[in-house]
Design goal:
The protein is α+β, with helices and mostly antiparallel strands. It is built from 20 helices and 32 strands. α17 links the parallel β28 and β29. The chain is globular and about 100 Å long. The two termini are 47 Å apart. The C terminus is likely disordered.
Length: 810
């Protein structure tokens, strides 16, 4: 089946927050933000802004009736800055006006005097200065120190990975409508309706029962609306409470890019020790996570990096340390994979280095160390139903690795300036929130007297198809035409205390809850059917007793002991109503068997793992640094799909999004911490032409997963990480051109970086020339002489990056 919303999207009829009919009297909000990365507020003057035409209010921290705090994990995030600002783009004041234009114009008239303070953008530097979000945390298995001695080869290095902009199509948005008795109804583009509800209650100083949050769907989220939809909803509510009018706040694209956090850039130091056979004996890794200015979800994201530090491999001796560094960037946040992609990129980089050192193909190392059934993860859980090796072997066979390798070698022999590269990427991803508490879902199901059904759950639709899958679940339990079933919006009134729709668990948690609720109603209906048939046959001869077990409801009709009766779904539902039997059910699902002990860093944190292997092939133009992705072919452990088209879309979309992160997408901050890549002319995402020319995902459908809904596995995030293989295929192609070089392990591998990596000598020459030129000719103050392009230095989310455009001013 197609995603239930596909037709709406195609016809342009889907309504997002900004498309909703506006209640009478709606006002519009705009946000004034800090122009600097770090500073003390000397004076905040809103008088001029308040006097602008159409302005109804300019609100600051002082106008917050409750607590000026929206931090989820830690209380370190004020809604509006009070005494200090900690990143460029931090909200300082809220302007509410008669039109969005008037609000923005007035926001431009807010005056802020700031005493600038030194800012830190590099996570290593922040660590050295003791600027941490949480204390460092380590996962340990075996004894790395003792293991180094037994290694034939030890490689060390650093992997840097860049940030990633979520670029959801619908920007952050909320509409807050004040109600009676200090209540507030908020339509928010959030993955976490309860999170928004909680934050608004806190900010307004009211109980959560006074705040109703509703979400129809999101125009994409990718983790960017798990925590970061909250401030905008809370600001809209703040405006609404002051003015007693509905207030809408919708960020523009540039604002959204400048104000919100991204995928965390990481700088990671590794050390990998192996036998000459390629067997891994020890791995030590330290992740420096660039968290930005507030905790947001960073500690949880770092935790997942630790969980996935060893990727798909069994590593007998491990020490993985995570450092969450507080810097002066917008708080970085959840993004598909949630810290796992950053970690897996490192171990694959280490393997790439080790393969070069040992003179063996990386696949030999990968294959030798792949997880086997029963292998222990460093966090104490054992690999059960482990399909790492099956996926690996099937990918090799199905996509004819040997033949492809020969063709690539032949190509590379016969082409001087173009090189091809191949890489395999095994993925193992744990399903469950690593915060055990969050692994619960809820559903509310109503059957109406005409037989139609409405299902509400805590799952938020963001394009991933959770509604389509919940629909499929209800349609499997209720033996009726699918058209009789509707999946409703997500509302904190219908399903309370929801977990964010995240960690790929949306369908697992909410689908299971929906299944339980539907089954509860069906069970009641079976009893009603028994009683009804009993009553009907009581007057006739031959009427026997009808146990509910004899009753079956299939294809919209009731059968008794296999014989069709005249009871239809509809008449049965009507009979239940007449007999005063409830046609509604609420259900709650909590993933069984999971636990985690943070003191020992051991437990059973995941319900199960998803496995898979992808093969990537690329061609690099080593004269220009440009490249093409010839293909990505994957074998993916899914189980029987609830909806094949949706799952295929998730896998393909995840792969292309992952490729974007590692290739074209480069988040660049100027030296003062202001975002330079802040629209689509400077931030490039993959388009159709850049996507792999061949993209194929083969699902294993013969392996039921009893922990999943109808035996399927979650799919939202795992395929994203296949893109790491595409990245290392690019490395291999580059290595084929420059076998003499130890290439830097830095992503994104933009064409510029490919080129500068391939010709480091030439780059040094250019930089020296530019340095001496700028030393001899210092531009006069006030003249806007552009810096030479090759000499510009920008902060790539904390990493020094050469060869990019000079820091611009907005
Ligand atoms: N697919 C689309 N189209 N849009 C999205 O925003 N988010 C991803 C993934 N797939 C996303 C998506 C992320 S980050 C997660 S965690 C899951 O979907 C969340 O949904 P699920 O739990 O229902 O899989
Ligand atoms: Mo997904 S990053 O867990 O929202």
């Amino acid at each position: 089946m197609k995603n239930l919303e596909a037709a709406l999207h195609l016809r342009g009829e889907t309504r997002f927050v900004d498309d909703l009919p506006e209640p009478e009297g709606t006002l519009y909000a705009a946000v004034f933000v800090s122009p600097v990365a770090h500073g003390r507020i000397r004076r905040l003057d809103t008088r001029e802004a308040s006097g602008r035409p159409g302005v109804r209010a300019v609100l600051t921290a002082r106008d917050i009736p409750g607590e000026n705090q929206i931090g989820t994990i830690q209380p370190d995030e004020p809604l509006l800055a009070e005494t200090e600002v900690h990143f460029a783009g931090q909200p300082v004041a809220l302007v509410v006006a008669d039109s969005p234009g008037a609000a923005r114009a007035a926001a431009g008239a807010v005056r802020l005097e700031i005493h600038a303070l030194p800012a830190v953008f590099d996570p290593r530097e922040a660590y050295e200065k003791g600027l941490l979000i949480v204390p460092p945390r380590s996962f340990v298995l075996g004894d790395v120190e003792a293991a180094w001695g037994g290694c034939d080869c030890i490689v060390e290095g650093t992997v840097e990975s860049g940030a990633q902009e979520h670029l959801y199509l619908e920007t952050q948005a909320a509409l807050a409508v004040p109600g009676e008795h200090r209540s507030m109804r908020v339509v928010s583009a959030t993955q976490s309706p309860t999170g928004v509800q909680r934050a608004i209650a806190r900010v307004l100083g009211v109980g959560m029962h006074a705040v109703h949050v509703e979400v129809e769907r999101l125009g994409g989220a990718f983790g960017g609306k798990e925590d970061q939809a909250t401030p905008w909803a809370a600001l809209a509510a703040l405006g609404a409470v002051h003015l007693r009018r509905p207030v809408k706040l919708v960020l523009r694209r540039q604002e959204d890019m400048r104000f919100t956090g991204k995928r965390h850039p990481y700088v990671s130091d590794f050390r990998l020790g192996l036998k000459s056979s390629g067997e891994i004996l020890a791995y030590e890794v330290t992740f420096f996570q660039n968290a930005g200015a507030a905790a947001d979800l960073s500690p949880s994201i770092l935790e997942r990096s630790l969980f996935h530090a060893t990727g798909s491999y069994f590593v007998p001796n491990l020490k993985a340390t995570g450092i969450s560094a507080r810097t002066h960037l917008p708080p970085n946040t959840a993004f598909r994979g949630f810290g796992a992609p950053q970690a897996m990129l490192v171990i694959e980089g280490a393997i790439t280095r080790a393969a070069r050192a040992l003179g063996i193909p990386p696949e030999v190392i990968q294959e030798k160390n792949l997880l086997r059934e029963g292998d222990g993860f460093p966090y104490g859980m054992a690999a059960r139903g482990c399909r790492a090796r099956r996926c690996w072997q099937e990918a090799i066979d199905r996509y004819a690795l040997e033949g492809r390798r020969r063709r690539v070698e032949e190509f590379n022999r016969t082409h001087a300036l173009q090189k091809k590269g191949l890489a395999l990427m095994p993925v193992c991803f744990g399903i469950s929130f690593t915060n055990t508490t969050l692994n619960q879902g809820g559903a509310l199901v109503h059957v109406y007297t005409d037989g139609s059904v409405v299902v509400s759950t805590g799952g938020v639709e963001m394009g991933q198809g959770v509604k389509t899958k919940i629909h499929a679940v209800a349609a499997r339990v209720f033996p009726i035409e699918p058209a009789l079933i509707r999946v409703e919006s997500t509302s904190t009134l219908r399903v309370a205390n929801t977990s964010p729709t995240a960690a790929s668990t949306g369908t697992d948690l909410n689908g299971k809850a929906a299944e339980l609720a539907c089954r509860a109603i069906l069970e009641r209906l079976r009893e009603v059917a028994g009683a009804e048939l009993e009553a009907r046959s009581a007057g006739q001869t031959g009427g026997g007793n009808t146990a509910p077990a004899d009753i079956e409801i299939a294809e919209g009709r009731v059968t008794r002991k296999g014989t069709p009766t005249d009871l239809t779904w509809r008449s049965l539902v009507a009979a239940a109503y007449t007999r005063r039997v409830s046609l509604s059910a609420q259900a709650h699902y909590a993933t069984p068997g999971i636990w985690y002990d943070r003191r020992r860093e051991k437990g059973e944190p995941f319900a199960y793992h998803v496995y898979g292997t992808a093969l990537s092939e690329v061609t690099v133009d080593c004269l220009r640094g440009t490249y093409e992705i010839d293909g990505v072919w994957a074998v993916h452990d899914l189980g029987p799909s609830l909806d094949l088209l949706v799952d295929r879309g998730q896998a393909e979309g995840g792969i292309v999004q992952g490729i974007g992160w590692l290739t074209l997408e480069e988040v660049l901050y100027a030296k003062d911490g202001r975002l330079m890549s802040r629209d689509l002319s400077t931030y490039k995402v993959p388009d159709l032409h850049f996507a792999p020319r061949e993209l194929e995902v083969h699902f294993l459908d013969d392996v039921p997963n009893p922990q999943g809904v109808f035996n399927a596995k979650a799919i939202g995030e795992p395929p994203f990480m296949y893109a790491i293989g595409t990245c290392y295929a690019l490395f291999r192609a580059m290595q084929a051109f420059r076998p003499d070089l130890e290439l830097p392990l830095i992503t994104p591998l933009t064409p510029e970086r490919v080129l500068t990596s391939l010709y480091p000598e030439r780059l040094r020459e250019l930089e020296q020339a530019a340095d001496s030129a700028s030393n001899s000719a210092v531009p006069a103050s006030g003249s806007a002489a552009p810096a030479p392009a090759a000499a510009g230095t920008a902060t790539r989310a904390g990493c020094r990056t050469r060869g990019v455009a000079a820091a611009g001013t907005p």
